[in-house]
Amino acid sequence: MLPLYHVDIVINGVLMGAIYALIAVGLNLIYGVSRILNLAHGDLLMLGCVVTYLVYNILGQTPLMALLVIAPLFFLIGGLVNISLIRPLMKFGLERAAVTSVIVTLGVSFIIVDLVLFGSARAGISTFGVSYMLPSVKIFDIYLSSVRLLSLLSILFITIILRLFITRTFLGKKIRALSQNREAALALGVDDSKVSLITFGLGSALAAIAGVFIIMLTAIQATIGMTLTFKALVIIILGGMGSFFGAVAGGLLLGLAESYTMLYLGGMWIPVIDVIILFIVLMSRPRGLFGKEA
Amino acid sequence: MLCIVPLFVTAYITRVIFITLVFITFTVSYNIVGGYLGYVNLGHGAFFALGAYTFVILVTKMKIPIPPSILLGAVVAAAFAGLVSYPLFRLRGAYFSIASWGLVILLNQLAVNLDWLTGGVWGVQLPIPSAEASIPAYYSAIGIMLLATAVSYLIYKGGFGLALFGIREDERVAANFGVNPFKYKCLSMMVSAFFAGLIGAVYVFNIGVINPSTVLSIDVSLAPVVMVLVGGVGTLSGPVVGAAVLTLMQEILWTKTEYFHLLTYGVILVLVGLLMPGGLARSKKLRRIVVR
Amino acid sequence: MLRVSNLNVAYDGIRVLWDVSLEVEDGRIVALLGPNGAGKTTLLKSIMGLLQIMSGRVEFEGKIISNLHPSRITEMGISYVPEGRGVFPYMTVRENLELGAMSKRSRKLMQGNLRTCYELFPILKEREKQLAGTLSGGEMQMLAIARGLMASPRLLMVDEASLGLAPVIVIKLFDALKKINARGVTILLVEQNVLQALDVAHKAYVLESGKIVLEGDTASLKGHEHIKKAYLGL
Questions:
Q1: Pairing state of beta strands C155-159 and C78-81?
Q2: What are phi and psi of C2, to 5 degrees?
Q3: pLDDT tens, A159-207?
Q4: Which of A44, A46, A54, C64 is 20 to 30 Å from A22 at the Cα level?
Q5: Distance, in angstroms, between A86 CA and closest chain B CA?
Q6: Scanning every residue of chain C, which has its alpha carbon at the shortest distance from the alpha carbon of A242?
């Protein structure tokens, strides 16, 4: 019988994994529809953390309430980014847009990070933390953090709704169609700029939502954005490009791997492990676990 | 002409010119992969840092003299580039870019974690007085910059460059013409890394101190990406012009305020990306060079 | 019904179509023939708004549709069945068909259109819940054509339907196309299988190296020297 602390580690891993899965799914959605990888995705997450922090510390609202504000807010922000920056790029043709978008989204990332750095330096803060506590819950002799349980359930709920949206609604089918065969979808008359706009909003909202959960778990700094985008990429490659289920599975696996790394090696080795995992997957099975594309 | 400058101007101006030379070399080397090959390598900064750290470790821990240490720094960077080419080039486009950033993340974390080797977050101080180092470093920088530019020129004009351009424009077609894409990608990455590592070592030699925030921060690691964009990606003189312009701008503007460095870069990236895409990766002029 | 006038199209900096003109009359089947790489697919894609037209004009039912977004063109009543089928592999047959009905008009007619498709291609009804990627080549082609019909088009453009399919299946497909035409749908057919195409079509054009080199009704074309030599191997 495994020592009890393993339960804690697994729960932690699954929770982080679930959060990662949200990030990866959001990034994947955007990519599938527009063939654009938003390098600023992780920074939108970071902004979600910051907003949660502000909502909690200044307005005194619980983080979960912040969710209600953040989801639509970042949907709009994502849509704005799409209209102002991505849509003009698409005029140059898909391939050119894909290359240029690396540059443009990188630029957006820089801008976001620097603005937050500036703001936080002025306010005298260097890390953002939200110390939101709820009484523990006891199940089978184990004390579990309610915040974590609540977060896990919320994410599960969100994932299910997302899945239903993608499989049952017509818009969801258009999204899938665009990612499975872009030209055929266009030929059928799918309005790709409209779908792209909505998907950008959706993906960005997902990133920010993930941010809410992250800041409840750990304190963050303004620079975590690029690292998280990188993690999302590792997950997408691990789980397989183009696969919703793959992003979820990849996220959970990475979360667990990181949790165990934290136990055996210490948290500071987590980024190293991430990179190693990426390289191993690329060398042994580049398609990932459930990959649908080359 | 640059060689006689230090005799006439202050140490400060010499230093500025030195930094400019460093960034020119750094950007020229980046351009080989980021511009000629068309793969936006966000991990280029890792090669720079690796050269720098190798140099420092060799000099301080293994007591190896300076010149070979500098060279070895470049070699290690090139070898590392060769190794990571295998997994990295399984990816393309934006996937490749984000994955390549992992190199910087990796090196940054290793530099912090392996503190017995690298001095961790606080880094290492070189036991060479700065005054003694700055002149040889300056002249080395001139030499390396010229060498790197010469190599860049040779690549640009020669068959190697042609292959790179071909891969950039249409990888499948290039493969059909008998170009083994991976070989060229790997080689170009190694050449690129060699010069980055070389100039990284010289940079640190002059500065006299190394730590993760001086060689692995975002604004250093990703500087070449911005610089080459300003000058013209994939062109011969672009990286030189861009690096020179931006370094000077940095020296003038950034010493005024510690804020908004990254923001300036960001705005430049967005504006250039939206307004001057002709300079980015797909250059029509070069397309005709790629013989069908 | 469809009139293409002096169309010039470039693709990746290279000119593919040179001053192409053709006409498709209401209710007919028109075939577009020619060797690989002649630009036939480029022509269809340009009509569909998937490629940029440099100069020239495309008119449909009197309205100019050059360079409109494909979503507008489907709304106006043109459907494109892409080369290589273009089914959505990880969606079911049914979902593929549903996606064919993009405009509000065709969404309303969805049930009726579905029934028509299943009548034409009963095998699709059988495989309704199967993932489209698991279908055989012929079934995929049927699905692609059926999907095109779901948009209630007045003009159906079919690109290389016979490619890679066994002759038996090709005959079935062309039979289905005849039936579709009999219901009033005009068809523009790009084909490499010249014999089959000439059998089913009323009129044909031959495109070589981006230029129209021959046109005429199929009866006379069947006896044409060039056609016999170049395409029928006689």
A1: parallel
A2: -115, 125
A3: 999 999 999 999 999 999 999 999 899 999 899 889 999 999 999 999 9
A4: A54
A5: 9
A6: C90
